[in-house]
Amino acid sequence: MENTIRxxxxxxxxxxxxxxxxxxxxxxxxxxxxxxxxxxxxxVEQAYGSSRRVVWKEVLAxxxxxxxTGEWLPExxxxxxxxxxxxxxxxxxxxxxxxxxxxxxxxxQVLDLYVCLRPVRHYPGIPSPVKRPESVDMVVFRENTxxxxxxxxxxxxxxRTVKLLEFLKNELGWNIREDSGLGIKPISRYGxxxxxxxxxxxxxxxxxxxxxxxxxxxxxxxxxxxxxxWGYELAGAEFPSETIAYSxxxxxxxxxxxxxxxxxxxxxxxxxxxxxxxxxxxxxxxxNGDYISDALAAQVGGIGIAPGxxxxxxxxxxxxxxxxxxxxxxxxxxxxxxxxxILSGKMMFDYLGWDEAAExxxxxxxxxxxxxxxxxxxxxxMEGAEEVSTSxxxxxIIRHMDNK
Length: 404
Ligand code: NAP
Prior knowledge:
Elements: E1 6-8, E2 11-13, E3 19-23, H1 29-48, E4 55-58, H2 62-69, H3 75-84, E5 86-89, H4 103-110, E6 115-121, E7 137-143, E8 153-154, H5 159-172, E9 182-183, H6 189-205, E10 210-215, H7 221-238, E11 243-245, H8 246-249, E12 258-264, H9 265-274, E13 281-284, H10 286-299, E14 307-311, E15 318-322, H11 339-352, H12 355-370, E16 373-374, H13 376-379, E17 386-387, H14 390-402
Parallel strand pairs: 3-4, 3-5, 5-15, 7-13, 10-12, 10-13, 11-12, 16-17
Antiparallel strand pairs: 1-2, 6-7, 6-14, 8-9, 14-15
Helix pairs in contact: 1-11, 1-12, 1-14, 6-7, 9-10, 11-12, 12-14
This protein binds NADP nicotinamide-adenine-dinucleotide phosphate.
């Protein structure tokens, strides 16, 4: 179909009027979506006039899907994301209890979106708990399909747990307390290397200086330690002239090559506070990546503004998403900050190669923040700020795109 984004070789082929599926999301989802989509359309129109336009296609997931179809994540939604390759979503309620898995985790796993991509940078004016938030300029590549997140868990006392405990005792001599629940932590060479490959390619494309693998390999040698080993192995085998291991630098100059280094996760969490400028592109496993992404987001303004995406760089499949939750107490109040979703849209336009639209969105946000027109969450932390509603904030972004 002529309006469908396709993967041609290793490149996306994007028609001038691509169909892009979107999920508004639950709770505050509709509030932020209606502000965001106006910003997206305005940016595309201003950048390209009538020669390009996004054809938005609504698909359902979460509470609305459940009330309209009886399914939390209808097959039709998955089919649309598979077919149209690139989509965007607001936050979704995770149903509590009843053995439900998070809809976000399910989407990532079913579509094999193996990279959770989170750029973290500071925009002037945004309140931050650290002294020099402008030193933070990192992009986190978090592995999305493995680790203790993969869901291989059995509860205490369950017949499967008892069987596993017996096996572990008899075959491996492992004495684990009987009243334990069990979880398996799979970290594969394939999964690690495709994630690290994506991070290195990104660093090369964006001319970033280093890729740092963050791990607890000193303790978990055959999972997190192996991730580190496989990373160095991959860099040496696939990018021998474009990268150099930090250990081979011996204090010398990298000569324009991307430096591959690694750091233990607990030290990393200290160093992103004490000397964040030393880190640029981060490659890490699922659980570390979860903590690191939110810790970094807090340094530059928190979850109201942090954008994100889940991407399979081989198939091209990608879903861009607000990284915060559904904040149900604010639903329908036209109050919350839509920046996370709007900046996720900016990332999406970057991914499509619609750079001019992406730049206009960023320019609009920067101008609005400079004018101190912000939603309640920033207004309560910024001196002299004017508190505006979600929709007024969107209008201000559109106005600031025009400023020469
Ligand atoms: P949450 O919805 O992110 O809200 C926690 C708090 O964060 C809010 O009360 C609010 O703080 C602040 N916040 C969140 N989004 C904001 C925004 N756009 N603008 C300004 N402030 C914002 O987290 P939660 O209450 O733990 O989770 C609620 C539901 O969301 C759960 O069902 C959870 O499973 C789901 N969830 C979904 C996703 C996702 O879809 N990606 C992610 C996380 C959670 P104040 O109260 O201080 O104003």
